[in-house]
Design a protein that fits this description.
Number of helices: 13
Helix content: 25-40%
Order of helices and strands: HHEHEHHEHHEHHHEEHEHEHEEEE
Number of strands: 12
Shape: globular
Number of domains: 2
Strand content: 15-25%
Structural class: alpha/beta
CATH topology of the largest domain: TIM Barrel
Largest sheet: 8 strands, parallel
Distance between the termini: 46 Å
CATH architecture of the largest domain: Alpha-Beta Barrel
């Protein structure tokens, strides 16, 4: 278990039978320790997030680069070719980062429903329980669009119990600070599973997921970061996914620009910005992932937020300023950004690199962003931001 539990028990033992002032001390210690699960945060420069995968061992240069980030998610397949599984690979990578920067917060990636390969414990469980796979009305395995990747049937208690035991074991490793939970939207948007398994089973999977998240929150939420891929502008959501954030410490964001659902680009983006602003102001951790390269079509066939490769000599300054402006009109304490061209570092042109905008002094915001039509403005100690989402332009005036 996490160190705070040991401290808590020790303090409670000392305070048994003691006076009210001593009880108040216990409450204060628990509160302070609980807040320590949050990543380090500073307005000094751009608050950055890292989200990546590499199926082989990280080099010393790569580890030194990673250790500079306050919040890191190691994706599926990480270290799996070198260490035999994602579980072992993530722990090895996390341990190596922590040796350089013990304050870095590391998240273990686990999909809530998709059976991605390279997880040794998943393979063992499914070999013993082949009935755990989600099947369609013809009793055939339901599959992703790649026609090979299956799903866990969350309507089964056995499946939910296994998933919770797995993530609890990983979260209790000293090198892991919490979980990154993916594909929540696939479970909560009915059309995804209805098309595969029908209405009744889709609803049962959704109910099973909600039960699983409630148990997860009560089991791990007090001493672990729980970051979900949740906030998304969808017509099926009552409040852009915010209605589910009570389960989690915060939300990761992807696909922030490219969907519309009949809305204009600017209306879609403005709705997302408002949701992020509200959640960030409520104290939720925000891990905003924004693509420098264009999103590829049929990205579901690939893995995650698949991006068009950018060239080494490509001028990215205008696009990067626009992405940073989107982030900055949303950001509050514990908000972080990762501009990227895909999560697989072997294909990325921004891996191991930095940009001048990351190094310049930022300073604390002087207030919330102001909005007039589709133009946002916000001032920081060392920067004035102007964002025009209708014309897709931004100006960063550094002082």
């Amino acid at each position: 278990m996490k160190n705070y539990i040991i401290i808590f028990l020790a303090v409670v033992t000392i305070c048994l039978g003691s006076c009210k002032s001593q009880k108040d001390t216990v409450v204060q210690k628990v509160s302070n320790t609980a807040s320590s699960i949050l990543p380090e945060f500073s307005w000094n420069t751009m608050p950055l997030y890292m989200h990546l995968r590499k199926d082989t061992e990280f080099t010393k240069e790569e580890l030194n680069y990673l250790a500079k980030y306050p919040l890191i998610t190691f994706e599926k397949t990480t270290g799996s070719k070198t260490y035999g599984s994602t579980e072992a690979g993530v722990i090895k990578a996390a341990e190596a980062v922590k040796k350089i920067n013990p304050k870095a917060k590391v998240l273990y990636y686990k999909n809530v429903v998709i059976n991605w390969p390279s997880y040794k414990e998943d393979e063992a469980f499914l070999k013993k329980h082949p009935e755990a796979f989600l099947v369609d009305s013809k009793e055939k395995k339901a599959l992703m669009s790649n026609n090979k990747t299956g799903f866990f049937d969350l309507s089964q208690e056995t499946v939910r119990s296994y998933w919770l035991e797995h993530v609890t074991k990983m979260a209790n490793n000293p090198a892991i600070d919490g979980l990154f939970l993916d594909a929540n939207i696939k479970v909560l948007v009915p059309s995804f599973f209805k098309s595969r398994v029908g209405t009744e089973k889709q609803k049962a999977v959704e109910v099973g997921y909600l039960s699983m998240m409630e148990t997860l929150n009560s089991r791990l939420g007090k001493d672990n970061l729980l970051i979900a891929n949740m906030l998304r502008v969808r017509p099926e959501f009552k409040d852009v996914g915010r209605e589910y954030l009570n389960f989690f410490t915060g939300s990761y964001l992807e696909g922030f620009e490219h969907e519309s659902f009949g809305m204009t680009y600017e209306d879609y983006l403005a709705t997302g910005i408002e949701a992020v602003q509200t959640s960030a102001r409520e104290g939720k951790v925000i891990a905003m992932s924004l693509g420098i390269g264009k999103a590829l079509k049929n990205a579901e066939i690939g893995i995650d937020d698949t991006r068009q490769r950018i060239t080494d000599n490509e001028d990215l300054s205008e696009r990067l300023d626009y992405l940073l402006a989107i982030f900055l009109v949303c950001a509050e304490k514990y908000s972080y950004i990762y501009p990227h061209d895909g999560y697989g570092v072997k294909q990325s042109m921004v891996w191991l690199k930095t940009f001048p905008q990351y190094e310049k002094k930022l300073g604390a915001p002087k207030g919330y962003a102001k909005k007039e039509g589709y133009v946002y403005t916000r001032s920081f100690e060392h920067l004035d931001v102007v964002l025009d989402i209708k014309n897709k332009t931004a100006t960063l005036n550094w002082k």
